[in-house]
Amino acid sequence: SNSYLKDMKQNLCLSHNDYxxxxxxxxxFTPVLIDFDAMGKVNPTCALCxxxxxxxxxxxxxxxxxxxxxxxxxxxxxxxIKDDFGKALYVSMNGKLRWYNYLLSKKDLYGVVSMxxxxxxxxxxxxxxxxxxxxxxxxxxxxxGLKTIKFLNS
Length: 154
Known about the structure:
mainly alpha; two-stranded antiparallel ribbon
């Protein structure tokens, strides 16, 4: 896992880092982000893993079909995934563990319980997440051609 972290730190970008539906306001169908307290440098593929997971929950219940739709939409609009998606999933899980530790240190019982459920669900589905991504990637390459899609591990 430490080698995964090292790999992901080779490609960083500035990110909001707090993907929650309540941090997005809408102005005439244009999204506006608020709450930049967590903003910082992050690997873009890790950010994609986290945002796909976060926005695939409806009323705190995870929906695998929404996850797939999120990734399909992202990939159809951006062909710049440069890092290994499977590694990025595990690095994102590491970030969840760091947040869990923070909640424990603050004795935030509600946050700990919520994060425990979230972490277990993420870990339980991590291989499915990677399989979904790999299937979408194969379809995109077949449909658009290898030269159009710039995946690292193609």
